[in-house]
Design a protein that fits this description.
The structure is a homodimer. By secondary structure, chain A is of the alpha/beta class. Helix content of chain A is 33%, strand content 19%. Chain A has two domains: 3-87 and 241-399, Alkaline Phosphatase, subunit A; 93-237, no CATH class. In chain A, strands 10-9-11-1-12-13-2-14 form an eight-stranded mixed sheet, with helices on both faces. In chain A, strands 3, 4, 5, 6, 7 and 8 form a six-stranded antiparallel sheet that branches. In chain A, 52% of the residues are buried. At the A-B interface, helix 1, strand 14 and helix 14 of A face helix 4 and helix 5 of B.
């Protein structure tokens, strides 16, 4: 018997309210340069401290597997309880979601970027001299106006930042993944894409579609400088993911600000509640929607953003801003409340990392690990131990008393 | 290579004595109502403390999988080192074991209970007004005397508490599991049972047998009030489980008081040593049988019982009574001694839970976690970490030096 089937069989509906607050990239490492403290340790967090002292279970979560640094996609899929290795989402899809494109089942999406080609079609600059976003927008506009369809297939072209853009093929009968239309270094021509699985007729059809797109679109850029070509990578379709509501018997809503996280929530079928811009407004939205959903995913971006910049003080302040807003959420305290990250983003590393992120779980039956604060070293001592992030949802369901007893 | 095969290949006999003391449901959670303490923390346990201070490894164990609350069956099968999801035992079998029926290979057992039927055969009360145990005994006696066999198959009928009883079909050529002869709510007739796997001819044969049993037994109750019918659930055969002795190369004995735990031990082929009623007597039995077996499973029920009642003081006292008796066991200290639970039974929850139970392992090579006491929060800091209960036996074997080195 598969473990997921056992969980399904034991699942009961209880009407409990669950909230998952993701402080993106909150986990960090202590270094001498940072006075031997992490931002969580250095931050002044009276509200979080009070919550911990009321009784919480703490632990640390391995986002994917030991040593693996996740992007936002796998990081969040694991938090949503999906195996992030089994459920891979192509980068084209993630990028499209990040630009706020609402993908439909069957869409094939690609990350693309403008490049410079010489007169023999050899890639001489993979990023076209890192053109401005405004130039990228103009070029996408040119392509969008001239290439709306290929046969029956609709083509959507959306600019991103700098030289980056996204292409979505919307139609029927094709699928990814395809090999990249990108030599991955200068001095070579743009390779023709192929189906990763040559026996898939749908993928072969998609490869033909991309070739036709190149044949139509490349000539439109021939006179542009320096962006007279483009590369496409991570060409894949939106995978079929069992819906969150079906999997957990919880009606879920996403309260996020950035498109990428709304997109990831949408992938698993969460409703998107729009409008909030700040964490206080996100918590106000939670209060307003409290009775309409069972599960709330609330995403806070700034911990990760300042970690990526290596800005310890700003990451610390972002945590303090979150803490200051926390009492708004607690006006209608969820039955099960989790505060964690999707991964660590240590300031020292200026990027995502594999270090297990700390996690805090509060419910009437979470018990108490008798810790004073929420921090990385505190979480090391907690009753949840070090565990895989994909099991967090199961602990949340258990605390919501959503599982019947297994066996007599 | 399967991990179990590797363990087998590495196993050596060493003549060590191992003891597994199960304080049923000992794990708990600290809540404000209980002064922020668990019963283990609140109890005065000088003997346990001394043992810990001599040097123990501590940790916490996930009984089945994250968030899953086990019944006694899966809880103990995991402690005995079997995968509790792979090795599922039907509720009929567990119930029969609980009533002290010694099942034989091939037996099919069902949980049953008396119910009330109207004149059209519709179930109007699934529990027949919760008749007294004495009435249940009378009715079982009526059935037992009239229905001893169905064809070649022997039928055993044994009363339980209140409206509950157990039916065992002893013969050849049939197997479970079957669907329930229970509509699971009032207002419907008793459904006819079917094989869960319709392609199993043995299960189809068992379904036919149950139908014949109904045809014979129901008329015998027609004039009884209010118990003029009965329902049957969890109809299954005793699964084939590889014997404990073969799996671990240890000759095992069970020193338990309650039938359920004797039955679970018997399922894996442990010898039952009868006679002891109190924990002191159980330890005396251990002393007397010390030279006759390699492995002793000693089960103590009262921690769970008081946890189920939500009686913190009584659970604490049960731990203290265990502690007071511990020196008897230590007169012949086992080479490897484990004290743990089969799951947690938090007083606050008045029932089993998923919270990892604390475990203590003492041997000459267990090392010391330098903890002062045995408790949930202490165990969080131990060298065993949080691990799946089914690996406990392997740690016990390792501490008994029963594993050869793997590889050069």
């Amino acid at each position: 018997m598969k473990l997921d089937d056992l969980y399904s069989e034991l699942t009961l509906k209880t009407g409990a309210k669950l909230a998952l607050i993701v402080l993106d990239g909150v986990g960090d490492i202590a270094t001498a340069a940072q006075h031997g403290m992490t931002p969580l340790e250095a931050a002044t967090t009276p509200n979080l401290d009070a919550l911990v002292q009321q009784g919480c279970a703490q632990g640390r979560m391995i986002p994917v597997a030991p040593g693996i640094t996740p992007g936002s996609g796998p990081g969040h899929l694991a938090l949503f309880g999906y195996d992030p290795i089994e459920t891979q989402v192509g980068r084209g899809v993630i990028e499209a979601l990040g630009l706020g494109i609402e993908l439909k089942a069957g869409d094939v999406a690609a990350r693309a970027n403008f490049c410079t080609l010489d007169n023999k079609g050899i890639v001489t600059d993979r990023r076209a001299g890192r053109i401005d976003t405004s130039v990228c927008m103009e070029l996408c506009d040119v392509l969008s106006k001239k290439v709306k369809n290929i046969g029956d297939t609709e083509v959507l072209i959306r600019p991103g930042k700098g030289h980056r853009f996204v292409v979505v093929f919307r139609g029927k009968g094709f699928e990814g993944p395809l090999t990249d239309a990108d030599p991955h270094r200068e001095g070579l021509p743009i390779p023709t894409v192929e189906a990763v699985d040559p026996s898939s007729s749908k993928a072969n059809k998609a490869a033909k579609l991309v070739a036709e797109f190149y044949a139509t679109a490349l000539p439109l850029l021939a006179q542009k400088k320096p962006a007279n070509g483009f590369l496409m990578r991570g060409i894949a379709h939106q995978p079929e993911i069992p819906s969150f509501e079906h999997r957990y018997q919880l009606k879920p809503a996403c309260i996020a600000v950035y498109p990428m996280y709304k997109g990831l929530a949408q992938l698993v079928g969460m409703a998107k509640i729009e409008g909030a811009e700040t964490i206080s407004e996100q918590f106000e939205t939670y209060l307003a929607e409290h009775d309409n959903y069972d599960f709330f995913f609330i995403h806070y971006k700034y911990t990760d953003m300042h970690g990526e910049d290596g800005n310890f003080e700003a990451k610390k302040r972002a945590i303090e801003e979150f803490d200051a807003a926390l009492p708004i959420l607690l006006r209608k305290k969820p039955d099960v409340l989790v505060i964690t990250g999707d991964h660590s983003t240590p300031c020292f590393m200026k990027g995502h990392s594999w270090h297990p992120q700390p996690v805090l779980l509060h419910s009437d039956c979470s018990g108490s690990d008798k810790l004073e604060r929420f921090s990385e070293t505190g979480a090391n001592l907690g009753s949840l131990g070090v565990f895989e992030a994909r099991f967090l949802m199961r602990y949340m369901q258990a605390n919501a008393r959503m599982f019947d007893k297994f066996g007599a």
